[in-house]
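As a warm-up, study this chain.
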Amino acid sequence: MVHIGLKIKELMSKEKMDAPELARRLDKTKQAVYDMIEKQDVSTSVLRKLSEIFNVPLTYFVTDDNVLNIVGHVEIEILKAENANLKSELERLRNLKFPKKEGKVYNLWMKFMEITEEMQELYKEEKGE
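Now compare it with the structure written out below.
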């Protein structure tokens, strides 16, 4: 079972926030904060305020740490892969050679791009998009 009081204590420690400061932000007494840390259950309204104060989702307080770690690890791996793909695409774009803005090559390139756009529009129309 998730011990909400311990999660609150961890967040206080992480944010270097003492009980009087949290009490002030919650509009509670210092003793109420100490009592909350000892409890396994806390009211939903207090959890909402805590999630705003500590900038964590409400689910943080009711989700097992192991589940959060697994989900967080998967998200990190997805982001790493996406980052690698973006770096690769950026490098590819940097290596493209575009014609200078004057001359026949540039004019042909611009015509090619216009025709390509027209073809894409026609293709979409045919597919009914």
